[in-house]
Each structure stands twice: as C-alpha cells, then as structure tokens.
Amino acid sequence: MSAHIVTNTGVDNRKFAMWTLIGSECFLFGTLITNYMINRHRSVGGPTGPEIFDINLTTLSTFDLLISSVAMAMAVYYCKHKKLRAMQWSLAAVLLFGLFFLGFQWYEFHHFLSLGLGLSTNIFGASFYILTGCHGAHVAVGCLIIGTLLVRSLIQGEKWFDYDVVETCGLYWHFVDVIWIIIFTVVYLFVYI
Amino acid sequence: MSNHGAPSSGLWSWITTVDHKKIAVLYALSALFFFFLGGVEAMIMRTQLIVSNNDFITARTYNAMVTMHGTTMIFLVVMPLSAAFFNFLVPLMIGARDVAFPRLNALSFWIFLFGGLLLNFGFLINEAPRGGWFGYANLTSIQYTPDLSADFWAMGLQVVGLASLIASINFFVTILNMRCKGMTLLKMPMFIWTTLVTQILLFLSLPVITVALVMITFDRHFGTGFFNPGTGGSVVLWQHLFWVFGHPEVYILILPAMGIVSEILATFSRKPLFGYSVMVYSSCAIGFLGFAVWAHHMFTTGMGPWATIFFTAATMLIAVPTGVKIFNWISTVWGGRIQFTTASLYGLSFVAMFTLGGLSGIMHSSQPIDTQHQDTYFVVAHFHYVLYGGAVMGLFGGIFYWFPKVTGRLLHEGMGKVQFWLFMIGFNVTFFPMHFLGVQGMPRRNYTYAADMGWDLWNVVATLGAYMTAVGGLLFFFNLFYSLKKGAVASADPWDGRTLEWSIPSPPPEYNFGIEPEVKVLDDFWAQKYDDKGTKKPSPAAPKYDPKAIHMPNPSYWPIALAAGITLGAAGFFLRDIGLYVSLLGVAVILISSYGWAYEEA
Lengths: 193, 602
Fold this sequence. Notes:
The complex is a heterodimer.
Chain A: H1 13-39, H2 49-52, H3 55-80, H4 84-114, H5 123-156, H6 163-189
Helix pairs in contact in A: 1-5, 1-6, 3-4, 3-6, 4-5, 5-6
Chain B: H1 11-15, H2 20-48, H3 59-93, H4 102-120, H5 149-177, H6 190-222, H7 235-269, H8 276-289, H9 305-333, H10 342-365, H11 367-373, H12 377-407, H13 413-439, H14 456-486, H15 524-529, H16 558-571, H17 579-599
Helix pairs in contact in B: 2-3, 2-4, 2-14, 3-4, 3-5, 3-7, 3-12, 4-5, 4-16, 5-6, 5-16, 6-7, 6-8, 7-10, 7-12, 8-9, 9-10, 10-12, 10-13, 12-13, 13-14, 16-17
C-alpha cells in the first residue's frame, strides 16, 4: 500500500486527502466555535467561564500540546532522514504528550462537574463541552493513529519507512494543535477582554 | 498483486467490490429503490389532497409523508443518483483506471445504504420522522417529539452525511490527482468541472449539518438545550445552521445535473459546448456564492434590514452565473443538428424547466415578495421546478445517455419518449397550478384544507398530474427490466460522443483503458474522429496490450464491515435500555475493521 503513484499535482493522494479533510474540519470547528461565541453570555443560571476557569492549568496543557507538535515535526524529520530510533522516540513523545493533554482535559471536565457545571446546566456549559469535547475526541483519534504508527514501526523496523504516511499523520496532528490554539484564545483568553 | 483469482460475478463479488463501475451500479439501484419509495409517498400526499377535508390518511401520517418524501428525494435519490454518475464517469472521463481510494469508495456506498435504511426504519415501528425535511427546532425537541422519530431522522442523516463526506474527499482527490496525460484543468469535460465544484460544496457544507445534528441529538438525549429558548438557546440558530448547509446543498443537487445536460446537449447538437471556459467560471461562481445566500430561507425570522439586504443582493447576484449557463446551453443547441433522442429531450426540458424554476427563485430573493410567499404552495412549485424539472429530469437524461455504456444495451427509445412526455406533462400539470394555489394563500405541509377557499379545482388538477407522472415512473422501471434483457446491443460509441468514455467498449473492461489515454485538446475523442471541417477521419487500428499485466485493486469486505459498525454505533441512540452497549459494539466493529483495512494488501 506504500506504492507511490505519480499524480497530477505531485502530492501523494493520501496527503492530498488529508488536506481536503482539514479544509472540511475547519468548517466543523468553525461552526462549533461560532456556536460557543453566540452562546457564551446567554446562560440563565449556573457557573460560567470566568468563575471556574483556571488559566494556569490550561496554559500548562496548551504548552504540553505545543510541545507534542514539536515532537511530531521531529518525527517527520527523522523519518525523512531514515533515522529509525530517533523517529520512534519522537513518536513516543508525541503519544505521551497527547495522552497528557487528554489527562488534563479529563481532570478539567471532572473539576468543572464538581463545581456544578454539567452538560445540561446552562447554555455556556453545553457549548463549552461540545466544543472542547469534539477537540478532545480529535486528540484521542490522533493518539490512536500515532500509537499505531509507533507499533507498526517497532514491529517492522527498517522495512517500514513510509514518509508519506508519517507526514500525513503529522498534518493531522498539527491541525488539531492549531485548532486548540484558537480554542484556547477564544474560550480561555477572551474571558479577560 | 492482482486479483485475477477473484470472482467477477455473484453476490459476494458485489459485496466486496471496489470497482468504481460496480459501485456506480449499486448507487443507482439503491437510488432508484428510494425513488420508488419517495414517489409512493408523494402519491399518498396528493391523494389525500385531491378533495378538501379528506380523511384518506391522518395528520400524523401526512406529516411523516411530507418529511420522508423530502428527505428521501434529496438525500437518498438525487444525491446518490448523482454519486452513481460521479462513480461511473469520473475515472472514465479523466482517463483513469479507478478512483484515488477504491476501498473508501465502497465504504461510502455501504454507509449511504445503511444510513438510508436507518432513516426509513421508523416506518416499521410506526415512528417515522415527522418534523419536516428541515427538522426545524423545536419540532424535533423531546418535548414536542417524545418518540424516536426525530432520532431516526437525526442519526440517519448523520450517517448518510458521513457517506457523502468520504465520497466528496475521494472524488476531489481523484479529479485533481488522477487525470490522464495532457488533461489540464481546462481540458476536463464540463461534467467533471461541475462534479469538482459539487465535491467542494459537499465537504465544506456537510460539517455544519453534522454539528447541528449532534446538537439536536445532545438536546434530546443529554438535555443541553441549544435550541431551547428557556435555557438561553435559540430556535433560529437551528435555521441558520441548517441553511448554511441547506443552501449549498441545493447547488449540490443541481450542479451534477447541469454537467450531465452540458454533455448531452453538446453531443446531440453535434457542436462543442458553447462558451466552455465561461461555463467553468460560472460553475465556480455558483459554488462560491452558494455559501452566501442561506438566509434567504429565513427572511421572515426578523433578521433586521442589513442582513436582509445582504442576502437579497447575494441571491440576485447568484442568478447571473446561472443565467450565463442558460444562455450557453441555448447557444450550444443553436444552429446545431439536433437529434431528438430521449436523452436530448430530457436535456432540452431541463433548460426550459430550470429556467422557469429559476425565475420564481429570483422572485424570492426580494424580501417583501418572499414574505408573501413564505410557507405557501408557491414555494413548493418553485423548488419542484428546479429540483424535479431541473435535477431529476437532467439525471434521467443521463440515465438514457449512459445506460448503453454501463450495460452494453440501449434503453428502449419508444418507451423512453412516452415516459418523457408523461413526466414532462404530468410534472407541469402537477406543479404549475401550485403557483396559483400559492398566491391564493394555500399553506404548504398542511394535511387538509377547508372547502370554501377556492382551492379545490387546482388540487384536483395537481393530483391528476401526479398520477400521470406515476405511470411514467412505472413505465421507466419496466423499460429498465425490458432493455436489460432485450434491448438493442450498443456499440462502443452509440451517440457519436465527445468524451473519453466512448472510446472504450460498452460495457468497459474492469481496467477501463487498456493503454492509458493521452489528451491534446478539449473533447479529444471528437478530435480523433473528425477533422476541423467535420469530415470523418479513418479510425486508427486498435492498440495492442496485455490485460493480465494491468494491476487492479483487490476486492475487500472491510468497507461493508466498517459501514456496519458505524451504523450500529448510530443505532444505539434508538434503543433505550441496551443502546449504550450497541453503540460500544459498533465502536468495537469500527476499530477492528479499521485495522483490518489498514493491514490488508490493497
């Protein structure tokens, strides 16, 4: 399946498909972010963002996700230069930082629940959970993909160096990261303006 | 690895097929099955409305009919029938052996089929969706629809939408990446261009309805209240989200038919398509402006003057590229040697009917007029002229035009022409009077009407026209069965066509092209057959090649398994007690099939 087909654009089909999916995902997250922007001040009861956000914690988890993107870029670089061990370590780092991020989100959701903000408490909570939850689901899928790459690389060793696949997965990971930066700005930082 | 050992016929070969031509046939057969269902629903509605105060069906049943007729015809007939044409024609017209991702292509079909069945499943337990094809909030809220019908609607559409999303990415990549040597963008056939724009509209608009449907599902199952004003939500938000998807959707329905008609009219006028590059730019302009007109569906929600002015202007603007197209089709036919085959009759009627529907559409861009027409039969008349007189007529033209290429036999022309006139006259008799009913104030979607409103005559006429169309539809199904068995055997190029698919045998071999074609000009196949003065060139000797040396992808059962997993995951939302377990089972099937898929040798 790693056979490289000559294409009109010169871009691998799978990579092209990932770019297309990213275009589509922009509209998905665009809709969710717009929905959050519309609804964030419309709650009729219950706690909202400024009362419960812990900016220190979220900054840390944002930093964690950014570092994971650095590791991803390193994995792509080492894959291109056929450095197997370095690529595997980089992929392991991506996976680890991704799982950390999910842990942060798990803790955050749990904490908010204990403060009395459930999914059905108010319109702020519903919009917040559906947006950040959707992003978390994307990170989880990303972890699954990166984990699969890592396992496959560990089993097959030098035989398996599919640069197009690693780069395509990297595109996805970076995109999910970029989306988080927008969410972090819109959801957590807009509280201060 | 090649698949010469794999069976090429039998049920298993259809279930595991990744051949774009077989998938096209599966799409077409499913779409025609749903066309029959949607048609029956229409007939039941028209029978109910034939006289005032009728009690043929109850209001509840009528609501189910009105909802499922619209949902079925849009998502389960016109979209998959267009997808059948994308599947069959895109690789053939661009000179490729298959689509970019053959297994994803099979996956799209199976998800679509299972999603379509899921949507209709409610009929079996008497809980068919009743909230309209637009599912306006708060009709779909748990308060007003406590039974499962809105879940069938939301989850069914979610699954069908996923199928379209996967297919759109696949075709987008195929068209931009898999063209044969020499086929630059402006040498692609017009149908490929309209397909390309359609895919862009699909993968950019579907995520919006995906989010909206997730919100409905959350509102119903987890009490979020996005569309509940009591908790700070808004019912108008649903309308915005729905129409941000819904208006590009209108162009998703009509653009493929426009491409089909462009091919048909050029072939049967024996002239190149007039103003090809302007047609290309018009299609792109329609695609772009299609995202900026959604709120003309919402003029009566009180958006304020600025939004109203913007959407009025944008809607008027989008008529310009559409009008350009109509003039181009007329100029294509003008001065041509027109052959009146069934396909060309459908193509010509498309131009006329679509123009009528377009004119009433322009009327609706004006907010004051639209306010008068809102929710009356005038709107029903308008969109049936563009979607039935336009999209469906164009797609039927495509069926008659490409049937010989798909099956190797021609559809019976005599029966086809009778069917065409039954459709054409029946359609106009049904829907033209609805303009009158609309301006007389008859509201749409109501299951009956009072006797003293002066609406009786035109309702009788409309119903009789609908029955006429039904006879035409039955004749078409008979024609299909008859022609498959006894139809005249078609040559490779029965219509003296212009595009690459006519250069290979009918039906095409599995690998499509023995030797990958090379294109020099637009309508290259025509240029190979005729010189500039229109005299026939001697046909070159058929090139020699070894079919066994051609690599084709292997069949796979993972697509249908993955589609089943996705459907199970969605079905969990209908089952009150064991629902969570069913959804988790679905997720497990999805994971297993994804890994089976990834590790399978394609």
